[in-house]
Amino acid sequence: MKNSSALGNLFWLDRRWYEKGISRQEAEAFCRALARHHYENFTVVSFLLPRGLRQHFANIYAYCRVADDLADELRDPQTSLDRLDEWRDHLYRCYAGQTVHPVFVALQPTIERFDIPRDPFENLLKAFRQDQIQMRYSTWQDLLGYCENSANPVGRLVLYLCGHRDPERQALSDQTCTGLQLTNFWQDVARDYKGGRIYIPAEILNVHGYSETMLAQGVVNREWTQLMKDLIDRTRPFFHRGLQLCSLVQRQLRLDIELFSRGGLEILRTIEAIDYDTLHQRPQLTRLRETRLMFGALIRSLGNPRTVP
């Protein structure tokens, strides 16, 4: 949903269903189409998930996709805040058994079947709202606090789908999700700055003698290199800790965790390989490297087939 017309169509659907209603089957098809259209890896992830979870994954993805687009695609902070408030109202109606929007018509049975609390859904909206009003971060802890709402709820939602509700697994999932969010920040420094945001904390910028003025000018110097090395060194341990979750979940979910974790680590290595210059190019994995990661994760999974309760 990377254009205003697509987003507008979604809310046209919203008004339409107020008038005539929508069946669960139609709503689920809507969520599957939304996921396939906007998430290029959906087919791969769906293949790795147990068949019975694929629709539920699409339902959750659709909720997250719409919320993300309301935050990023409207180009006006106040409009985004207003629409995010509407989306939160839909969420509250969903938990009250009064769904009307197609995403929530599909999502409500998922919530009920897996007894998913409202917190992770609501915390995502808190992060999206924060993006409309906070454009800079002072400390590393401030940034990690943002990740608690922007990234970690997604992993917890997937764990709920797989029947895992314990604090140990959730904490390990948080490590991987935070690592992925941080890695995305370091990939997209230039893009985020163009959008008015700097996620690199001011305290770390200051330690390395790199200024916002330099960032605006796209300066890649020794200070920038040392800054990026510091950020990568802070980020990599999140993935290593998160990989411990692989031994505590079923094989299908283990594959996803491996792919996301090792994919994140590969992106960090790619940043290093381009001499840390993420201001002039966006590091990303080639299809070949993605394929190698997938087969590596599959082989490791087959070599450790024990069942996890």
Please provide a written account of the structure.
It is a single chain. With 309 residues, the protein is an all-alpha fold. The protein folds into two domains: 1-133, Orthogonal Bundle (Farnesyl Diphosphate Synthase), CATH 1.10.600.10; 136-309, Farnesyl Diphosphate Synthase (Orthogonal Bundle). Helix content is 73%, strand content 0%. The protein contains 16 helices and no strands. The chain has helices at residues 4-20, 24-38, 42-48, 54-72, 77-95, 102-114, 119-133, 140-150, 152-161, 167-187, 189-194, 202-207, 212-217, 222-242, 251-273, 287-302. The chain is globular. It starts with a helix and ends in a 7-residue tail after the last helix. The relative contact order is 0.08.
Poorly predicted segments: 1-5, 305-309
Span of the ends, CA to CA: 38 Å
Judging from the principal axes of the Cα atoms, what is the shape?
Answer: globular
The figure for the number of domains is 2
What is the CATH fold-level name of the largest domain?
Farnesyl Diphosphate Synthase
Question: Structural class per helix/strand content?
Answer: mainly alpha
Provide the helix percentage.
over 70%
- What is the string of helix and strand elements? HHHHHHHHHHHHHHHH
Per CATH, the class of the largest domain reads: Mainly Alpha
Radius of gyration: 20 Å
Report strand %: under 5%
* Named CATH architecture of the largest domain: Orthogonal Bundle
User: What does the main sheet amount to?
Assistant: none
Nearest-integer average pLDDT? 86
Number of helices: 16
How many strands in all? Answer: 0
* CATH homologous superfamily caption of the largest domain: Farnesyl Diphosphate Synthase
